[in-house]
Sequence to fold (509 residues):
Amino acid sequence: MCNQGKQLEETMPAMQKYANIHEAVKCEDIKEVEEMVKCGANINEISIKNKFTPLHSACNAGALECVHWLLWQGADPTMCTPQGWTPVHIAAIRGHDFCLQALVNNNVSLNTRDNRGSTALHMAAAHGNSFCLNTLMRGGADVNAVDKNGWTAMHAAAFHGRLGCVQTLFKWQGRIDDTDNYGNTPAHLAAMEGHLLCIKFLLSCKSNPRDIFGARNDHGEIPKDLAEQFYKDDVVKYIETIEKEKDGPENMENLSFPAHVAASKGDVEYLRKLIENGVININERDDKGCTPAHKAAGQGHSNILKWLIEMGADLSIKNDLGDMAKDLAERFAHLSCVKLLTSACPVNEEELGIEEIRQSPVVEGAYLQKQAKSRAKQKMINLEHDLEIAKKNYIQLGGVLIDEKKKLEQLREKDQHIDELDAQLEYERLRREKLEAQLDQYQQEMAYLSSKLAQHSAAAMESSEWVSAPSKQSSAHMRTLKKGHSTEGTFIKRSFVAAKKKPLKASTA
Fold:
């Protein structure tokens, strides 16, 4: 009986362990998911409760390995829930940045709209997932897309008080002057909900504060009017203070906490002078409980943080809101600061607890990472083996692989190039032979001309000797005559006088 029970368990499908494929995906049990699909489960099965597909469920649970496997097996990433949400919307809502990256790598559309016209960017901004905003922006999401209410992602972030998202969107050229269908700017929405930090940041984005707080909506209301209407006293007081001050609202803070201002602006030299000269303490808190490390982490100045760490700053101090410097860096998506602070103060599992570690975006999935890597590696090896077998079968059936085609084309190109070089070499050889023949002909002509020149020079020498001998004899004879000597007689000099002509007489008969 026991053996029969074991055999029955082995032969029964994997459906017994989980009620459906969605349950297996939620538990990140990739092996059971594979078995269910092999046993006939639909990879795009819609759940009864949420109308999710398995890919929706994987993005909702942050099951990265399941997302990879489902996309590899051809799961449809464009299917929507009754609200119009795609898996991209779900990942953005839940803040699962790694799942979003997987979807982006598979060329999934990031600008799909739900029933209210909201994109995944609106969802990430509304839920404060600034890491997801960066991923969506790098993937090509439209930062200024509007929903049916005329809201951009900046409006959604300001309305929900997501300061980190407001800052991230502004860095990605998100506009703070856009108005919705009722003429409200992000500042109107932030004042309406009493989000003072967002109000301060929006103020710092403009050189003139009145450009922000003087804007009126379609009802003629400015942000201060909305804050008074909804009893947001701290926002009202802050706006009134700005209206009274001429030099800006931050001057009093600058005088009270110069080190915090230097850390916020990234002025490491001024901060070093203040701390080294003992003007302020390296862990000094401002009126909100923040240290210079909090200011540097919030603004993303990694050089300031590096120097503070070297000087022994306490990075475990929390401000009045319960945030450490690392929390601010994570919220504002300053990845270099997060990495620096994580290495400087590693996570203590005993203090945080297992659940908090799993929820931390920095160490998310750390417990299952090794197993997932080993399974992915084994899957890759199996696929490579199957691919090799498929290639051999294809070749055996007479097919030609793409790599083989490329190799053949390269060989043809090389052969053609070799033929061209051979033809060029033959041409150069014939040209060389022709030049050598011309050179031999010119050498023969030079030899012939040299022999002729030698004959002419010899004849000229003989003629010159024959002419010079008589000339020597005549010159010697002339010299003797001049001296008056003669061997045959005496030389008599005579003078000849021309006879005068006589007139002719007439002849007589």
